[in-house]
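BUG: 3D viewer hangs when loading the predicted structure for this chain

Environment: internal workstation, default settings.
Expected: structure renders.
Actual: progress bar stalls at 90%.

Input used:
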Amino acid sequence: AYPNDGNAYLLLTRAALANGRFSEALDAVHRALGLQGDTGSGLRMLGLALAGSGRFGEALVAWERWNGLDSKDPEEVEWEGTIDQLGDAARLLNNAVRGRHD
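Structure tokens produced before the viewer hung:
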């Protein structure tokens, strides 16, 4: 069941993120999203893995997709303020990396 279990890949993603293994997290979350489609936890963790990899613009896109979901489970709703803050930080870092300052 594991190779076809999106939730198992989300657990792997969570473990990889907790240990700072962002490349591994990206691999796992892409597999989860491929199996389950856009889920709140999948898109949220995709953004975290991308930001951890220094891919701030792509992280913003993932979090915009997360924000655009029609419905989120209660656990995801609790992340809304944090994702907004992370998005602000990613936007600032993305601009800094590109040499633009507001």
